[in-house]
Amino acid sequence: MDTGVEVYLSADHGHQTDTYFKVYEVIPCWFRREPRAQTVHLRAVLREGVLQVSDCKIQVKYCALGLPYGDVMRIRKTFHVLNVGNGHLHLEARTEGMWSIVQDHNLQNTCGSGCACVTQSGQRTKSVALHYQPLSSNEMTVEVCIHSAEVWPKVDTSTNSPPLYNQWKKTVTPLYFYDKDNVLLMTLSLILNLEYPRVNIEPAAIDFGFVTDGDTRKTYFTVSHTSRTTTLYLETKWLGSDDFSLWPKTLLLSPGTCEPVYVQYTARWRRGPVEGVARVEHCGGAGAGAGAGAGWCWSALPVRAAAARDQRCRAPPHDHTDDSRLLPPGAL
């Protein structure tokens, strides 16, 4: 329907009021100039997705003593994957080895009794397809599965010598990101650092020499460990003649500390010297020696003494230690 009204939108100027425009009636002799021609340039812009991740590497540090004997330990890490471009981004993430990608990662109640215990759910896979809108991001969760039997040091059980192994083991697994044309866009390093503490004993051996029958001698050795992150719960064991006694039976050693273990020998006449081994081991599967791959976190100290009937070897009981647990027979 023709109303006879023409609306012309000109440049914004003058005093600003609540009136957005004015309508003038077309009367005789009314004139309006035609607006100037305007040029519009159209330019084609490529819209593409650009991949970016929040971390340059994913690193897990763990002490091998915390691994369950004959079982597995699963550890998860989460980071962000971003599309900082102005187009859609289609990806495929792939990994291998001990690592896997977790889809639909969330926490669920384990028992349902309200005790706040949770379990980590989600589907584990080695590859997953991803799609990101322009200027969007999402969390990605990766999981490392550590089998104790595979990563614990192998120990030669035929000898009583303390095992030798490296204190750290580092494995690097790549996480690949491919585009929809299977072109590699980025590689993210998944790093697993396992610490293998060593138990150290000083001195390397103890020899009480000749001790007159019925006399006692007492000394000590020092126990420490190499872990920089873990407190070790250790147990002392004596293997050999019952003429020797050890104290204490257990040790709790923080990183960078050491504790003494006292050894007392009570001479009883025997034909020849008596020997034994003081063994200090981790109170767990790594120190129990329960099977192949176990019993690797321990150390041992050989102890030797000989009883003599020669009274010239007799001497008052000496104790240059500060321990009052081990006392000569009849001292109480």
What's the short story on this structure?
This protein is mainly β and 332 residues long. The protein contains 2 helices and 19 strands. The protein has a 5-stranded antiparallel β-sheet. Strands 2-10-9-4-7 form a 5-stranded mixed β-sheet, with no helix packed on it.
Explain how this protein is built:
Residues 312-332 are annotated as: Disordered. Residues 312-325 have a biased composition (Basic and acidic residues). The chain is an all-beta fold and 332 residues long. The N and C termini lie far apart (123 Å). Helices cover 2% and strands 47% of the residues. Strand 9 (168-179) and strand 10 form a beta hairpin. The protein is rod-shaped. It folds into two domains: 51-195, Immunoglobulin-like; 199-313, Immunoglobulin-like. 23% of the residues are buried. The strands form four sheets. It has a five-stranded antiparallel β-sheet. Strands 2-10-9-4-7 form a five-stranded mixed β-sheet, with no helix packed on it. A five-stranded mixed β-sheet has the order 12-19-18-14-16.
